[in-house]
Design brief:
This is Superoxide dismutase. By secondary structure, the protein is mostly helical. The protein has helices spanning about 10-20, 20-25, 55-85, 90, 95-115, 130-140, 140-155, 200-205, 210-215, 220-230; strands spanning about 160-165, 170-180, 185-195. The protein has 2 domains: about 50-110, Fe,Mn superoxide dismutase (SOD) domain (Helix Hairpins, Orthogonal Bundle), CATH 1.10.287.990; about 125-225, Iron/manganese superoxide dismutase, C-terminal domain (minor pseudopilin epsh fold, 3-Layer(bab) Sandwich). It is globular and about 55 Å long.
Length: about 230
Amino acid sequence: MASSLLRTTPAVRAGLRAVSKPAVAMASTSFVRGKATLPDLPYDYGALEPAISGKIMELHHSKHHQTYVNGFNAAVEALSEAQAKNDSKAAAAQAPALNFHGGGHINHSLFWENLAPNGKGGGGEPAGKLSTAITEDFGSFDNLKKQTNAALAGIQGSGWAWLVKDKTSGTLSVVTRPNQDPITGNLEPLLGIDAWEHAYYLQYENRKVEYFSAIWDVINWGTVAKRFEK
């Protein structure tokens, strides 16, 4: 998958530190030529069917994710201009947009990597060290799925459920975040599942529990394992 990260300018980094903790995460987001870009997918839009329809994938990737990229770039530009003018009030005003659109870009970039066509890297069960860790911290792979699906079903409104690793202890847990809030601090995101309606409604309508069940058929455990072991 094409990367979307490049280093920000000193002014932008300073502004990101000034506005909010979630926004700090944006300083490491991928850029090309100074701007965030929509990453390419390593599979066709229809490759994840029947778990996720090609129409959903096309709209989700080319429209929704692109909107987050555009919004993030606009917020970074406004922040840079405010920093150049030493206007701390205007810089701080960009915090919500940086968090929402930057988080949307980060979360979705990870999400696409989480997925692969069934039988071609997607589905099945994790192996190796990741499998061992899941058994130790959840009791079994089935328990991980049940806990994650319960967390997804419990999200009020829009948000994400994440399998995360504590950077200090190495232990795994499932957490949720509202809207597009990214995973920050001492937690490393390994696997994220999008619970926004745009991720499933065209196909599953109000039957989101079916989407939460079906998506496990296209989870790319190889990618999740690489994140876990790094």
